[in-house]
Design a protein that fits this description.
single chain, alpha+beta, five-stranded antiparallel beta sheet, four-stranded antiparallel beta sheet
Length: 317
């Protein structure tokens, strides 16, 4: 769900009422998501009953000032506080995002075991949204693959589940059967591969590098590696160094890119909190949240860099 209000002529009092309404709407869904989490806590994965799985709500307040500055925050108090000087404001927008995933109640979720071709453990699918993986096919049966994040180690997947797309007769799946993922389809063989790394599925920088190398070896040579967007300069120092040394011009340090962008964009409207983040090498809140999930502006900055990199590497020649 995406509700958006853009203001250039509506009275500020009305905008505040709209903001209050959307905050109440967000809070209502937050309560629903929390109740579902508590209801399914400590229940085996295959027995959980979800109406709103992986629920997420976000409100972004964007103020475009007459001096050319465009600032986005998710803090309601920041937004209301900046309305005290309406003469400095050119436009206002409020974005409410509500997302969740609902599983089909008709098809059984099956426990399955997955290993890589080398026999190593597979640490993917910590959740339900896995572009490039789903929909997939196992022994001719099409469906969706799910993973459960380990309670002991959030970077590991402790169990896997498969849910059929269409109910049918029982199908035996022999050990060693290859999972045919959406991304392995031949139609993608000439695509440019954009690999955006995250802090899941690996425990050490060396392990992440090895996983990335194996993926690169399996594709057509056209690729770009996007590094971690969370963390700070100190915590990411080793992993950034390894990736840059290995992949060179094909590596984009997304955290550093956006921190440098924020440094060049600093001004009197930059909050003290964001100044502290920039000083530590953390992407500021107008470009990403605390988990490194980029804002619209952050995505635009990174996307432009990716497009420039594609041209520089000659992938479109």
């Amino acid at each position: 769900m995406n509700n958006k209000v853009v203001n250039k002529q509506i009275p500020l009092e009305t905008i505040v009422k709209v903001a209050n309404h959307l905050e109440d709407y967000k809070e209502n869904y937050d309560r629903k998501f929390e109740l579902e989490q508590n209801k399914n806590k400590n229940i085996p994965y295959g027995e959980k009953q979800w109406e709103y799985e992986n629920g997420n709500t976000t409100i972004n307040y964007t103020i475009e000032f007459k001096n050319g500055k465009n600032i986005k925050e998710s803090d309601y108090n920041w937004f209301v506080g900046n309305l005290n000087q309406p003469s400095t404001i050119k436009s206002i927008s409020i974005d409410l995002y509500v997302s969740f995933y609902t599983k089909s109640q008709n098809n059984t979720i099956n426990d399955i075991k997955i290993k890589s071709s080398s026999g190593a453990n597979v640490n993917i699918l910590c959740g339900t949204k896995n572009p490039g993986v789903n929909p997939c096919s196992i022994n001719g049966v099409k469906g969706t693959l799910f993973g459960k994040t380990s309670e002991e180690d959030a970077t590991k997947t402790s169990a896997f589940y498969f849910q059929r797309e269409i109910s049918g007769e029982k199908v035996e799946v022999p050990a060693g059967t290859v999972v045919q993922t959406e991304g392995s389809d031949a139609k993608y063989k000439d695509y440019i591969n954009i690999i955006w790394l995250e802090r899941k599925g690996w425990s050490t920088p060396k392990e992440l590098l090895e996983q990335t190398e194996k993926f690169v070896e399996s594709i057509n040579g056209k690729y770009i590696i996007i590094g971690l967007s969370d963390g700070d300069e100190n915590t990411n120092k080793e992993v950034d160094k390894l990736l840059e040394e290995k992949f060179g011009d094909k590596f984009i340090n997304s955290r550093k890119l956006l921190v440098d962008y924020a440094k060049n964009d600093m001004g009197k409207n930059t909050t003290e909190s964001n100044k502290e983040k920039i000083a530590k090498g953390i992407i500021p809140s107008n470009l990403a949240d605390n988990n490194g999930l980029l804002s619209v502006t952050g995505c635009k900055v990174l996307s432009k860099n990716v497009c420039d990199k594609i041209k520089t590497l000659g992938y479109l020649n």
